[in-house]
Amino acid sequence: MSATERLMSEAEKINRFLSDIPELSLSGDPRWERVLEAERYALSAGGKRIRAVLAVEFYKLFKGTNEAPSYVYEAACAVELTHTFSLIHDDMPEMDDDDMRRGKPSTHVAFDTATALLAGDGLAILPYEILARLSLEGKISPETSVKLISALSRCAGNRGMIAGQMLDLWSETRYSEIDEAFLKKMSELKTGRMLICSCVFGAILANADESAVNAAIGYAERVGLAFQIVDDILDVTSTAEALGKPIGSDSERQKPTFADVLGLEAAQELAEKLSLEASELIKKYPGSEFLSELAITLATRKS
Amino acid sequence: MSATERLMSEAEKINRFLSDIPELSLSGDPRWERVLEAERYALSAGGKRIRAVLAVEFYKLFKGTNEAPSYVYEAACAVELTHTFSLIHDDMPEMDDDDMRRGKPSTHVAFDTATALLAGDGLAILPYEILARLSLEGKISPETSVKLISALSRCAGNRGMIAGQMLDLWSETRYSEIDEAFLKKMSELKTGRMLICSCVFGAILANADESAVNAAIGYAERVGLAFQIVDDILDVTSTAEALGKPIGSDSERQKPTFADVLGLEAAQELAEKLSLEASELIKKYPGSEFLSELAITLATRKS
After folding, report:
1. How many CB pairs under 8 A join A and B?
2. Is B128 within 8 Å of A118 when comparing Cβ atoms?
3. How many domains does the structure of chain A reveal?
4. What pLDDT is attached to residue A245?
5. What ipTM does the predicted assembly reach?
6. Burial of B13 by CB count in 10 Å (0-12 exposed, 13-18 middle, 19+ buried)?
7. pLDDT for the residue numbered A2
8. From A35, A243, B11, B260, which residue has the greatest number of CB atoms within 10 Å?
């Protein structure tokens, strides 16, 4: 099975766990359950589920196994829920004002802005409810639950993803001040921290030692930056159909990206260099082939 | 010291803990720390801090002590942060569109809507970071941390406060369907669940038994409903100056409240009956006088 096939097969498994989250089940009161419908809508929009897959795969890597138990998938969903909450709020009129997401109307368009605001809030809080429940059900220890909750809240919160979104807002009116260092910082916070969280989730769930945690962080940092660089390249070179969103949306606003500050060729080279470094960091762990290949695949993807 | 004086003195203590939250300290990068400034602004707008005070006082009641250690105040702040996140998002244009909050410009007016959206997100996530940290620092056990996180996320989340906000949105276009039962359900979810959370926080922190937890929940349910009823009464009878916001804002939109569906006199009687029941539920615990008096004070307040 190629890395892409394994990624897709694991993503489908994640999708099943996402649709089975008990806290998101409907009981028949549409007066308030419309918010659950909006959350389920946003979650069902798909995506590669890379974050959840990274959590599951780093668990397998550090546990030295080919299979992960259900609770690992349930915990991995927490990262995907946080990612989806940020997408709902990012698309809203006061933020990026994007009407489409992955070829479907954004949540605030498919529902309304008030419901989208609350659906984002609901998905921001739900991961902590799930991670606490896994402990109360005896599936993970309270110590593990607390470590996961600490990692997720720090990576998603004020000094993590949210700080990255603030940098993005800040840069909107300051295009001349955007350079490679700024773009790296923004990428590190806005998308990088949640990728670190994903890999660290796997390490925590596998009860891995500190050097393993550091390898996971190093891998995630490089893959995260490479992923953002390739996103910027594809925004220039890909077709609208392949991406499921209008291309060139950044350059229309003339907002500099890695493609601009580095040039397309150097940007692609950097992405590939980073993904090689990432795979280097984990190669001493038996069974690292998939994660190595995944890093390369993400850096050379065409959509 | 009267109940009002003790409430104010404890509220001041809570305010000191809120301004000392290490996760909200500024380090000098205004490019992204603007979101922290917005959160600190929203938190500094004040309020009675009833939620945090209830958490601290129920800890004292069930622990049989007059003093609470610092970590109890730190944990109690988590409830206040969640309440403040909901106020920031509630005031935004897509929700209540309120430009003023407690006599000051709302966060989205003092800053901007994008920053307010992210500040609400930040304050929604921060409580879990703090509650996990208290365990990692050894101030509370991982078991206690998980119980607090479970209680908070369930009371604030999709089936708690957020469901109540959805009911509020639902009712905007259905005034004719609003009756006493609906208003009770909305109050139970929108404000009641977070008051339950506050009292239960105290019980969990004191490691109280199940009958104590049930007494705390019963007290909170009644005080929460009484508080909402009095809010509705004051919206009709109080002055704009005393409330710090325009009066009659609900009736201008002709949205029925408890004052409408019950009549002012019956509404006031119900609030007082509920607060008496609340104090009855906790009177067997030595030292319950303050919480009893607080219930009565809240039901007979004039602002």
Report:
1. 169
2. no
3. 1
4. 60
5. 0.95
6. middle
7. 87
8. A35
Q: How far apart (Å, rounded) are the C-alpha atoms in residues B168 and A265?
A: 53
Amino acid identity at A17: F
Contact call for A122 and B23, based on CB within 8 A? no
**Residue A235 has what pLDDT?**
87
**Interchain CB distance below 8 Å, A166 and B24:** no
Of B26, B43, B29, which Cα lies nearest the Cα of B107? B43
Buried b (16+ CB within 10 A) or exposed e, A224-237: bbbbbbbbbbbbee
pLDDT in tens, A158-200: 999 999 999 999 999 899 999 999 999 999 999 999 999 999 9
Sign of CA dihedral B154, B156, B161, B163: negative
Residue of A nearest to B171 (CA): A31
Helices B70-91 and B142-156: crossing angle, nearest 10°? 20
3-state secondary structure of A101: strand
Question: How many residues comprise chain A?
Answer: 303
Report the DSSP pairing between strands B104-105 and A104-105: unpaired
Residue type, A263: G
| Beta bridge mates, A105 | A100
Q: How confident is the model at residue A44 (pLDDT cuts 50, 70, 90)?
A: very high
Single pTM value for the model: 0.95
Partners of A93 in the β-ladder:
none
| Shortest CA gap A93–chain B (Å) | 9
- Residue B242 CB neighbour total at 10 angstroms: 12
Print the domain residue range for B56. Answer: 3-300
Mean pLDDT calculated for residue range B92-99: 96
Q: Which residue has the higher pLDDT, A148 or A242?
A: A148
- pLDDT band, very low/low/confident/very high, at B159 (cuts 50, 70, 90): very high
The rounded mean pLDDT for chain B is: 94
- Half-sphere exposure (Cβ direction) of B68: Cα atoms closer than 13 Å: 28
pLDDT band at B253 (very low <50, low <70, confident <90, very high): low
Q: Which residue of B has its CA nearest to A33?
A: B163
Contact assignment for A125 to B124 by CB distance below 8 Å: yes
| SS3 state at A105 | strand
Q: State yes or no: pLDDT of A253 exceeds 70.
A: no
- Four-residue CA torsion sign, B175, B177, B180, B186: negative
Angle at A154 between CA A56 and CA B11, to 5 degrees: 140
**What is the DSSP-derived secondary structure letter of residue A24?**
G
What is the CATH classification number for the domain harbouring B162? 1.10.600.10
| Nearest Cα residue in chain B from A168 | B32
Supply the pLDDT for residue B241.
Answer: 56
